[in-house]
């Protein structure tokens, strides 16, 4: 950890990573059908889609927008992807988590005040980016926990 990460960066890092950890844990023990099951509601997504999309959002916002690092995100593709197992997503999360933690804990107070060009939001500060990612992760974590409950309830025992 750098000598002077901002207090805000430490708190946001802890909160964002915790939300994303819990999101990925929603995949635990599910088979292919359960991972890809969609609730019977307009615009509802499978657990697989929720995890792919939320990790893509964190990668794009934190690494690309905040740190100018490469991102291979294809937002539209996230909503049509299906998975055979959770293994690939778990491995992807483990690698991404390490990168996110390292970069987030390098943020100083000055970095949080600096303006960045966001692909869809225009010019926003580093702190605004952290808020966007934290809020987005929390929203989709709630959806994923509910979706997991619904998929388990709909699975014959």
TrEMBL record:
Per UniProt, residues of the DinB-like domain are 20-144
One Pfam family name is DinB_2
Q: What is this protein called?
A: DinB-like domain-containing protein
């Amino acid at each position: 950890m750098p000598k002077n990460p901002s207090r805000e960066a430490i708190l946001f890092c802890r909160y964002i990573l915790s939300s994303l950890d819990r999101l990925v844990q929603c995949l635990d023990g599910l088979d292919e059908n359960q991972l890809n099951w969609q609730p019977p509601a307009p615009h509802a997504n499978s657990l697989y889609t929720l995890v792919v999309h939320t990790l893509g959002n964190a990668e794009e916002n934190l690494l690309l927008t905040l740190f100018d690092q490469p991102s291979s995100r294809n937002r539209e593709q996230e909503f049509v992807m299906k998975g055979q197992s959770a293994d690939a997503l778990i491995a992807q999360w483990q690698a991404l988590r390490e990168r996110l933690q390292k970069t987030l804990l390098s943020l100083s107070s000055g970095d949080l005040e600096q303006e960045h060009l966001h692909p869809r939001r225009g010019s926003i500060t580093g702190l605004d980016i952290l808020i966007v990612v934290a809020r987005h992760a929390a929203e989709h974590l709630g959806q994923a926990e509910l979706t997991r409950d619904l998929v388990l309830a709909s699975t014959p025992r």
